[in-house]
Amino acid sequence: MNSRQRRGLVLLILSVLCALGAFAGVLSVIRDVESKVGPETTAYRLKQDVAAYQDLRPEQFERVAIPQRWLSDTAVTDLDKVNGKIAVTPLLKGSLLQADMIVERPALQPGRQEIAIMIDAATGVAGKIRAGAKVNIYATFEGKKEGEKPVSKVIVSNAPVIHVGKLTPVDSDTADSRRRRVEAVPITFALETRDAQRVAYAESFASHVRLALVAPGSDVPVPPGERTYTLDSDK
Questions:
Q1: Between 196 and which of 51, 180, 191, 231 could a Cys-Cys bridge form, CB atoms 3.0 to 4.6 Å apart?
Q2: More confident position, 1 or 232
Q3: Are residues 136 and 202 in contact, defined by beta-carbon separation less than 8 angstroms?
């Protein structure tokens, strides 16, 4: 073997060694990435915004593969868990579904009864009240005697809403005894007997019934001294 052949052999060996070194480096990088990422698992991501207290449906989510080590313990990995659930807060498109984002649909508890009333959509609901929400129910009564001022009362505080119906055209009396067509929404509450009686009375005799949405997690009842209001008392 002459010197030129020896140099060629040495270069060939060096090339093989460099290739093996590069391959080993690639394997090392792959193993390092795998050690950092680990095995993947299934999670679910929102395909659209979901309003608070809205029913959850499987078609609102898309399946995604996420490294298991990056997924929180509260992540929902089984879409069957959303059946019968509602969103507890507004959910944004692209968010991964977490167990603390959803709650069971409110059910009627022992000792309570369902009662539904029609609420003017423009003044009482405005699209923000959903099943699972809590509201304060206000009623305004005209003076019983001539010269008596109207009075506004909180007839029920923290009333749990269990169902919100669809917009329905209804007839409403105006101040000049004429009837006009308005849109109202049937709202169903789960109330104890006394509160149900208050709501029924207000719907029959109050000039206006309105709902005030209570912030989630805030269930402090309205103090007795703040449940009745007249314009004369606001001085």
A1: 191
A2: 232
A3: no
- C-alpha closest to that of 229 among 205, 200, 201, 208: 208
Full-model pTM: 0.54
Lowest mean pLDDT across 26-30, 39-43, 91-95, 106-110: 26-30
At residue 175 the predicted structure's pLDDT band, cuts being 50, 70 and 90, is: very low
Give the pLDDT score at 230: 77
Element at 119 (helix H, strand E): strand 113-120
- CA 217, CA 89: separation in Å to the nearest integer? 11
The burial class, CB within 10 Å (0-12 / 13-18 / 19+), for 141 is: middle
Residues in the chain, overall count: 235
Nearest C-alpha neighbor of 153 from the set 73, 218, 94, 222: 222
In the chain, CATH 3.90.1210.10 sits at: 40-104
Is residue 33 packed enough to be buried (19+ CB in 10 Å), middle (13-18) or exposed (0-12)?
A: exposed
φ, ψ at 142 (rounded to 5°): -70, 160
> Is residue 163 packed enough to be buried (19+ CB in 10 Å), middle (13-18) or exposed (0-12)?
middle
Condensed to tens digits (0 to 9), the pLDDT of residues 87-113 reads: 877 788 888 888 878 877 766 677 788
DSSP string, 154-194: EEEEEEEEEEE---EEEEEE-TTS-EEEEEEEEEEEEE-HH
Residue range 40-104 in CATH 3.90.1210.10: yes
Say if residue 152's pLDDT is above 80: yes
Cα(79)–Cα(43) distance, integer angstroms: 9
